Amino acid sequence: MPSGRKRWNLHDGPQGSLRRLRNQLAEDGCAESQVVLAKQLLEEKCELEADKISNFKQALDWLICATEQAHPEARRMLSRCIRSGVIDEDSAPIVRAKSCLAASRQETVARKAARDLFASLSNGEQYITTAQLERRIREICATTLRKGPGEDSLDDETPEEERSLDEQALEPSKLQAGDHIHTNGTIRTHDVNEDYPDRCQNDDIRNLTVDNLVSAAVDYCQGELPLVSYELTLTDPSVKALDHIPILHQAFLHPIVFLQVLYLKLLYYFGSFSFRLSNIELSVLLICYLSVSTDSLYHLVPLVFYYVSIIAMVICTFKMLLAKRQFIDFRKWSGLFLRYSDGNLQPDESEDLFVRNNLTPFVQFFLALFVNLFLYPFIATQWVPFSEFCVLSFCLMFLTLISFGTNGSPYPDILALISFGINVLAKYPYEKDTVVHQGWRFLDLHISNYPSYILGNSIEFCLNARVFFSLLIPIILAVMAKRNNWQGVLKYTLPHCVTLSWLQMFITCSHGCTTYGLIRGTLALVCTFLFLPLMGIVTVTLPIIAFLQYVTMSKLLYTLTVLIWLVVGLTVTCFLAKSESTKKFVTPFQIAIGLITLIYTGNQFAVNIQEDGIASGLIEIIGDEKSSIKNLLKNEFITDYEDSLYHINWDDYYNQCNSPSWNEKNMATTQMKCSILDGAHVNWSGYVKDVRVKNVRNQWNTFASWLPQIISEYFKCYYGEEFSSLCRNDVSDCEFVQTVAEQSGKSCHLNNYNE
């Protein structure tokens, strides 16, 4: 065999192997190796200035990477490098180094945790998905809930738990990664848009790079909810939970989820509302101001500001409720970064900063509340729907009590419930309560071992109870504020004061409420939430009823036909809604059918009005059994209806019914014979000698009492007469009547429709 010369491989000894190992560790993200390499580059003596600057820039890169991993020595060395003046301060490496030093320790730890999180989820790829991130956050929150408050925190997990979480999250993405493998802590990834320019921002699953997670960490440290969180669903349900179902089917297929999604949409709508007015809105307000006379400004301006304060309070309340929901998601981000920071993160700092960043709605709310209570004595009460405001205050009071009192846990805050109950007891009108007035008005106190006698006979219970409960309120608020080293002032006490403010609004508005107004407001609220789930069924049922009303059949057959067609219609629409190709046409189809049916029935009603007049058309729709409403419709403009009715004369009635009932012994026979005359009209003529008003019936006045007070006054003035007209009719004491009417806020009446 031919023998060649032996080849010798030259090695630089163990120092070269150590240097290569240190370079590999530095590229893998070892902060200690990065600092050692930076020291070597800075201490290396170079003859050329260009080599010195090159080593300095490379050392800066290593120090920046180590500083971003919260290495203390790297931070000090980086500060000395900036002050050394080797390169220009306006150069990119120095600017980047200053930006790194400007970050607080909290932000540095969060950045490192974000990179570790990305390395854990990416499995060597260049990106992760929002689904992976959402799943990891939910797993960490579930692990925290399983441990309970008395056990160790999440950063003390066992290796088995940590390994299981990593294995569950390390799922490969559906898309292929780039050619370059991510190296943790060496250099930053360039702009994401350059790698994925065609990705869809509105997709449910989106790709995230390390820069996205680092940006989320920066937002978190600044007390802001990360932008990535808006693409995740950390708290159920999601706003898009029912988007796969047609709109008209969502309500009756999933009524509870539908109401929850509707509540979330209200939160996001009012949460994004801004009090800044555009130029067009300011112009409209200026035109409205100029169109009002000077005499009306005295009454109009306080009323307008009163309504504006109510609207501002409602909007600010929804802003606070949205901030509360976002705070729950923010705490889940705290658990995520705490898990990957090895316990070095201080989540309380970021959470307190988040609370302070969302104090603006609270300030605006209490300012609007002050304006509202200040203007209350100066407004015209007849122009304010206190009943509706009372129902609104009642709903927002319990909504804020439940939302602010749960703190993300299924159990309410006991102190908040106790404080709310004590506030109710402190503001209860004991002096108007019959039981308290008669039985508890005076306390019969007896002292043991002394002669028995009444001690507190002159102490009123209502006064003592109100003072006692009022003194308890600040004590409970102070206990709530003392939580978490006085951090409860912003987290517990201030939100609870919002609930107490709506309680005060409820009490204030209740003084101007009416029974009909409360019923009206409650029905409006309930019917709104009941009609929405039934809207899809109504659009299917209307065409059936409109068609069958022109078919002659018995009531039983009519009812069965409606039910059968209703089931068939719902089955067909649900079948169409399940198909991907037809579900997008179901909602427009139902709306079109409903509009066609509405137009058709409206046309039939218009034809009846043209033929018989509006009153006859309404009476025909109402039916013969609704006599009270028919009487309400009978006035001076439906005389044609009166003329078309059947009348009997007085002589026939007297001979057949009146006289026999007194002359014959069996009055029941006459009553049975004349029962056919029930509801008939009798014509008679004669002289009236004496008139007494036995009762007065005014259906128009009854109808007006169901309307809000502001609309009721308009209604009375439009159809009725002013109280000033009484003086023209020579009514005695008309000036007294006018004075009472002005003081009570009444300007018109409907006495001309008395029956």
From TrEMBL:
Pfam families: WC-rich, WEF-hand. Residues 650-752 form the Wolframin cysteine-rich domain. Residues 147-172 are annotated as: Disordered. The chain crosses the membrane at residues 304-322, 362-380, 386-404, 450-481, 523-550, 556-577. It comes from the Eukaryota. Coiled coil: none annotated. Keywords: Membrane, Transmembrane, Transmembrane helix. The keyword Translocase does not apply. GO terms for biological process: calcium ion homeostasis; endoplasmic reticulum unfolded protein response. Residues 110-221 form the Wolframin EF-hand domain. One of its GO terms (cellular component) is endoplasmic reticulum membrane. This is (African queen) hypothetical protein. It comes from Danaus chrysippus.
